[in-house]
């Protein structure tokens, strides 16, 4: 009887695993207005074993020291070409993070600001996305398949976000639909430091 129960459980697990789907990283740059974010239903699981966080704080280089002027304090500067996000605190300490940026034709440059933040954001594919791929669900909740990762920081202009990712191998490349992807530990640290109203400069 125990053997029969064990075999039935193994068969059920096999069927469930076969139906599991991991969704490609997506930033929703073209369909921002169709997105809504709700509170998570469960805590986010631990990161995958291949995740290797990079050092989040670096001693500023000469170029970074030149940028750390009083006018740059309390500001995020994104250098698209360098795939780098630099946050300078109000007291002048700098945090330098590697990021993924938009693909060719999806990049945005200019001055904007943080308008809101969300822990464990849900991902809701737009109607046009679901039309192109009918297998997409209406909602992807928190978890390893969520393309927005564990944190999302929303920007006012350009319809952009700074967020985590379910594809850490894309960090350091031109891979997104316009948003800025970060490693999990990096975006969680930045999330705690920045507040709505923080100025964001996106450079080439």
| Quaternary status | single chain
Radius of gyration: 19 Å
How many helices? The count is: 4
Largest sheet: 8 strands, mixed
What class, by secondary structure content? alpha/beta
User: H/E series, N to C?
Assistant: HHEEEEEHEEEEHE
User: How many E strands?
Assistant: 10
Strand percentage lies at 15-25%
Low-pLDDT runs: 15-20, 29-55, 64-68
Mean pLDDT rating = 76
Distance between the termini: 66 Å
Order of the strands making up the biggest sheet = 3-2-1-10-5-6-7-9
What would the principal axes of the Cα set say about the shape?
A: globular
Write the layout of secondary structure elements.
Blueprint lengths: L1 H18 L42 H6 L7 E5 L4 E5 L5 E5 L2 E2 L7 E10 L7 H6 L18 E5 L5 E3 L10 E3 L3 E2 L2 H10 L5 E5 L1
Parallel strand pairs: 1-10, 4-8, 7-9
Antiparallel strand pairs: 1-2, 2-3, 5-6, 5-10, 6-7
Structure commentary:
With 204 residues, the protein is of the alpha/beta class. It is built from 4 helices and 10 strands, in the order ααβββββαββββαβ. The strands form 2 sheets. It has an 8-stranded mixed sheet with strand order 3-2-1-10-5-6-7-9, with helices on one face. A two-stranded parallel sheet has the order 4-8. The longest helix has 18 residues. The protein starts with a helix and ends with a strand.
What's a concise summary of this model?
The protein is an alpha/beta fold and 204 residues long. The chain has helices spanning 2-19, 62-67, 127-132, 184-193, and strands at 75-79, 84-88, 94-98, 101-102, 110-119, 151-155, 161-163, 174-176, 180-181, 199-203.
């Amino acid at each position: 009887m125990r053997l029969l129960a064990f075999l039935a459980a193994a068969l059920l697990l096999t069927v469930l695993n076969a139906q599991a789907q991991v969704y490609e990283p997506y930033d929703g740059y073209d369909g921002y207005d169709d997105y809504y974010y709700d509170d998570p239903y469960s805590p986010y699981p631990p990161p995958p074993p291949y995740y290797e966080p990079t050092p989040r704080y670096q001693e500023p280089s000469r170029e970074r020291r030149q940028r750390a002027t009083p006018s740059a304090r309390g500001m995020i500067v994104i250098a698209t070409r360098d795939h780098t996000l630099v946050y300078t605190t109000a007291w002048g300490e700098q945090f330098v993070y590697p990021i993924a940026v938009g693909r060719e034709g999806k990049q945005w440059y200019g001055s904007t600001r943080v308008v809101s933040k969300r822990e464990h954001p849900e991902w809701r594919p737009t109607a046009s996305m679901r039309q192109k791929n009918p297998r997409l669900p209406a909602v992807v909740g928190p978890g390893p398949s969520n393309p927005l990762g564990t944190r999302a920081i929303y920007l006012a202009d350009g319809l952009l976000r700074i967020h985590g990712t379910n594809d850490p191998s894309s960090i350091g490349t031109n891979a997104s639909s316009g948003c800025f992807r970060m490693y999990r530990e990096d975006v969680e640290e930045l999330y705690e430091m920045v507040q709505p109203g923080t100025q964001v400069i996106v450079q080439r």
